[in-house]
Amino acid sequence: MILPIVSYGNAVLKTVAKEIDKDYPNLSELIDNMFETMYTASGVGLAAPQVGISIRLFIVDASDFKKEYPDSEDFKKVFINPKIIEESGEAWLFNEGCLSFPTLREDVKRKPNIKIEYYDESFAFHSEEFSGMNARIIQHEYDHVNGIVFVDRLSQLKKQLIKRKLNNIANGDVEIHYKMKFANKKKKQ
Ligand code: NI
């Protein structure tokens, strides 16, 4: 089932999400629905808060990046209760987008190497290291479960410059090809 993706301006995106345990109701169904939702929206990552559920869960599938980033070939994973233990290396810029911010893309600086602990969809524990694009996708989604969105990582000046674009997104004044729940969409008379 395709779930509506919440837009910028919705409080759930600014909320630190809660940990879950393996008894969380209908978890595998939620994960399936999140993958379906992400693929339909042509995304490479989706965090539960983006479908309005404030839990520490996100999914990634960056197979689409495999031409430019060969490491991303089999990068399809589920992260539950993730904890980034370490970030290292010299921060690099990449032009990021986010399904909750349709039409907006901005350069964001992130460190290239991470070490992360998490549980997968079967609640098996993992401690792994990622780098480059895979690390970046994880960092972006990890921010979501901590109530941080990518524009929070821009300079004050840059944020000022994109204010109108952000308002348009919150108000639903954007062209999209997937189902969204806008923060302040006015009802048509
Ligand atoms: Ni995002």
Describe the overall structure:
The protein is of the alpha+beta class. The chain has one domain (5-181): Peptide Deformylase (Alpha-Beta Complex). Helix content is 23%, strand content 26%. The chain contains 4 helices and 9 strands; from the N terminus they run βαβββββββαααβ. The strands form 3 sheets. Strands 2-3-4-7-8 form a 5-stranded antiparallel sheet. Strands 1-9 form a two-stranded parallel ribbon. The chain has a two-stranded antiparallel ribbon with strand order 5-6. The longest helix is centred in the first third of the chain and has 14 residues, at 27-40. The radius of gyration is 16 Å and the shape is globular. It starts with a strand and ends in an 8-residue tail after the last strand. 33% of the residues are buried. The mean pLDDT is 95. The structure holds nickel (II) ion. Nickel (II) ion binds next to helix 2.
List its salient traits.
189 residues, alpha+beta, Peptide Deformylase, 5-stranded antiparallel beta sheet, two-stranded parallel ribbon, 26% strand, binds nickel (II) ion
Distance between the termini: 30 Å
Structural class: alpha+beta
Q: How can the largest sheet be summarized?
A: 5 strands, antiparallel
| Percent strand | 25-35%
Summarize the amount of helix as a percent range. 10-25%
**Ligand inventory:** nickel (II) ion
Provide the residue-averaged pLDDT.
Answer: 95
Which fold does the CATH topology refer to?
Peptide Deformylase
